[in-house]
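Structure (tokenized):
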């Protein structure tokens, strides 16, 4: 019997279109002899399913042409004539949502609350990795190098812009790079070499996010990516990738304007010599310590001359699910999907078997009266 797979993508995110591409690629890579796949598109906070298998189905997306769904007790249902009609109760949910609720733990929490196995990390690691400022604190605690940085909130910036800018300048040396703390795909990011550029970069960033991270911009470095997923008790580490960029950093346009989620060109493996092995070791360390699941891509900044590696950020649902990095170690997209689906189901069943209920007689014995008794937990 085929496994029932819900392929979830889209969402209220600036990366929604990228998520559509990842989902279409994933749908094609899933073995139709093994899986019965139901695509579920999140649009303006609602679930939709229907003929959603090609990019043409989204240019434009017409909600009224598809079934609107609700998730009830682990089953995606269609509301029809005031009745809930079951559409699919998936064995596993494959998460292809980039950014927003898909990566910040919201979707993970919704699925787990509904008793569904899924291929992305759980709530806490998802939320942590989504916040670039908070994740730096954890990286530092694990003694993994990060660029010096400082974060601030939009409300403080709007209240006293000059004070925020001065605090940043007192803390960080130019050049700086300014990033929305919760976004990906290089959206809203700018480099600043003086105070005027810093103010411009901050003005742009607060249009996209309510929390901003400013870091010292490392010079003479190369960007290197490495991905990982769990296969039973083992970790599968991808080959390293060196994205090519003509800018100060890999921009949104360079990543996607070529029509490939692997960007505007890359070198695999990265041309950083023995540091490639160190990156793979750091990748395994972070994957384990952050308690991650599914395919996760780690983005690094490498100073090859000084032989120093900095962790930049962690993508818990990377573009194209980073399948092309695993092809270089002999694992196809389809094989990778088989393994993360199997692992998601195995982890879910193991957790379910270990869950124990706890009952008490507190409510039976609790006596109510005109004077409320005090609780002393």
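Design, position by position:
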């Amino acid at each position: 019997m085929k496994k029932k797979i819900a392929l979830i993508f889209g969402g209220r995110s600036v990366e929604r279109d990228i998520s559509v591409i990842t989902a279409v690629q994933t749908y094609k890579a899933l073995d139709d002899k093994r899986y019965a796949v139901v695509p579920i598109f999140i649009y303006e906070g609602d679930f939709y399913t229907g003929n959603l298998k090609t990019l043409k189905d989204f240019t434009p997306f017409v909600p009224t042409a598809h079934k609107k769904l609700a998730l009830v007790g682990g089953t995606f249902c269609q509301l029809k004539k005031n009745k809930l009609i079951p559409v699919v109760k998936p064995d596993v949910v494959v998460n292809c949502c980039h950014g927003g609720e898909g990566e910040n733990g919201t979707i993970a929490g919704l699925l787990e609350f509904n008793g569904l196995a899924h291929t992305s990390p759980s709530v806490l690691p998802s939320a942590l990795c989504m916040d670039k400022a908070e994740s730096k604190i954890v990286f530092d605690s694990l003694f993994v190098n990060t660029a010096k940085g400082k974060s601030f909130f939009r409300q403080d910036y709007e209240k006293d812009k000059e004070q925020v800018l001065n605090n940043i300048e007192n803390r960080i040396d130019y050049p700086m790079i300014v990033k929305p703390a919760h976004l990906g795909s290089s959206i809203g990011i700018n480099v600043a070499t003086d105070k005027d550029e810093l103010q411009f970069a901050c003005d742009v960033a607060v249009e996209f996010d309510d929390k901003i991270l400013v870091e010292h911009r490392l010079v003479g470095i190369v960007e290197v990516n490495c991905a990982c997923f769990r296969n039973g008790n083992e970790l599968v580490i991808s080959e390293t990738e060196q994205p090519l960029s003509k800018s100060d950093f890999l921009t949104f346009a360079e990543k996607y304007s070529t029509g490939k989620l692997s960007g505007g060109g890359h070198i695999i493996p990265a041309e950083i010599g023995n540091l490639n092995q160190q990156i793979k070791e750091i990748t395994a360390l972070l994957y384990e310590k952050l308690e991650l699941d599914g395919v996760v891509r780690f983005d690094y900044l490498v100073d090859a001359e000084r032989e120093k590696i900095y962790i930049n950020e962690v993508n818990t649902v990377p573009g194209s699910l980073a399948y092309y990095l695993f092809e270089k170690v002999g694992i196809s997209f389809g094989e990778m999907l088989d393994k993360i689906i199997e692992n998601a189901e195995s982890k879910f069943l193991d957790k379910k078997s270990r869950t124990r209920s706890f009952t008490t007689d507190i409510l039976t014995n609790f006596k109510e009266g005109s004077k409320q008794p005090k609780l002393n937990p």
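Reviewer-requested clarification: DSSP finds 13 helices and 18 strands in the chain. Residues 3-118 form a domain with the Rossmann fold fold (CATH 3.40.50.20).
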